[in-house]
Amino acid sequence: MISVSEALDHLFELATPLPTETVPLTQANGRVLAEAVAATRNQPPFSASAMDGYAVAAQGVVAGASYKVIGEAAAGHAFDGSVAAGQAVRIFTGAPVPEGAGHVVIQEDIDRDGDTITITDRLGSGTNIRPAGGDFTVGQTIAAPRLLRPNDVALLAAMNIGNVTVTRRPKVAIMATGDELVMPGENPGPDQIIASNSFGLQAMLRDAGCEARLLPIARDTESSLRTAFSLIDDADLVITIGGASVGDHDLVGKVAADLGMQRSFYKIAMRPGKPLMAGKLANGAMMIGLPGNPVSAMVCGQVFVLPVIRAMLGLGQAAPIEQTATLAHDLAANGPRQHYMRAKVDAGEIRVFGNQDSSLLTVLSTANALLIAPPNAPRMAKGTSVRFLPI
Ligand SMILES: Nc1nc2c(c(=O)[nH]1)N[C@H]1C(S)=C(S)[C@@H](COP(=O)(O)OP(=O)(O)OC[C@H]3O[C@@H](n4cnc5c(N)ncnc54)[C@H](O)[C@@H]3O)O[C@H]1N2
Ligand code: MOO
């Protein structure tokens, strides 16, 4: 059995970054920017008022100073003229500051009588003017690669960038296998259960920016598995679930090999997730064979599949980012496999759940962390700093 980090290295050897495509900005959220973009304008393009008030010359702004109001500037409507000493222009938030003005006195800080305003003794600090280019200037770049989030989309829009070059979404085909499985909503027989982790993985992969589709459930026969493999089309990654262990009905590895899969590795010193396999299918698609136990499949999704997806998206080859927390209780010594223990982190303290059976989705759903107990870790006392993956 290889270690988790050796397995990740092998997976990264198989995962090639995908080509790019251009999408309109409205489709950019959640995509990975593949080429740097540069602002095509300054923002703001003019010095702009940050408040509703009166634009006056920069000098002499003190309580008691009076001005004659000579015009108005609103957002989208500049004042056509300049402001001299003793003059003011009524101005609104977002309006260009007129020539000659260097201060916007907010309207709460003046008394107005007809066309005359007088600054009161409430005068606040600051000029209330946003300088031209104060946010960004022409040519300023957003570097790639970068996972675009809503704040980035707003920035790109402000930069007047209507289309962006992003990495194509990874196409993933998910194949649940097993005679015992039926789809949610169907009527299971007495010896059947509902396919679950395939749906969890699809959700995980869609969250990660993939086009993830479920293949029909394959039965535990070579012909059914072959049929399912024939439906993978142009998937970049095929994920099988179950049938990975050593039982008489665990046929995924055999059928994949018969179909020309070049195996990279099988079995990892990890718990849950031991019987994981990976390789390259005859058509060039990458394959990851996950163990069937629901928690095992989901944990392997976090530890292996998501890093593979990030690599395909051009975000680099990196293991999931770990955090540290303090053990809220003593923890028994670990066995030879790296154990990803379902746990709850709260205010920097981590507590593992009592039952770590890899079939328990209720426990996984309550957990917000996977505590990482390294292979052969000795007993750890309460208060020890430990590593975990947030989930
Ligand atoms: N003699 C041994 N037996 C087992 C070993 C071993 O080393 N020696 N390894 C165990 C470990 S660890 C795991 S993990 C499982 C993995 O088995 P498979 O990948 O072959 O998975 P299945 O046998 O098909 O299923 C296991 C379990 O999970 C349920 N399952 C499967 N697919 C789904 C699905 N899509 N949704 C919900 N539940 C699913 C299935 O009904 C089984 O209960 O092998 C151990 N055995
Ligand atoms: O490795 Mo299995 O995934 O322990 O349950």
Automatic annotation (TrEMBL):
Catalyzes the insertion of molybdate into adenylated molybdopterin with the concomitant release of AMP. Coiled coil: none annotated. Belongs to the MoeA family. Keywords: Magnesium, Metal-binding, Molybdenum, Molybdenum cofactor biosynthesis, Transferase. One of its GO terms (molecular function) is metal ion binding. The lineage of its organism: Bacteria, Pseudomonadati, Pseudomonadota, Alphaproteobacteria, Rhodobacterales. It is an enzyme of class 2 (transferase). It comes from Shimia haliotis. Residues 173-311 form the MoaB/Mog domain. It catalyses: adenylyl-molybdopterin + molybdate = Mo-molybdopterin + AMP + H(+). Its cofactor is Mg(2+). This is Molybdopterin molybdenumtransferase. It comes from the Bacteria. Its EC number is 2.10.1.1. Pathway: Cofactor biosynthesis; molybdopterin biosynthesis. GO terms for biological process: Mo-molybdopterin cofactor biosynthetic process. SMART domains: MoCF_biosynth. InterPro entries: MoaB/Mog-like_dom_sf, MoaB/Mog_dom, MoeA-like, MoeA_C_domain_IV, MoeA_C_domain_IV_sf, MoeA_linker/N, MoeA_linker/N_sf. The keyword Nucleotide-binding does not apply. CDD domains: MoeA. It holds the Pfam family MoCF_biosynth. One of its GO terms (cellular component) is cytosol.
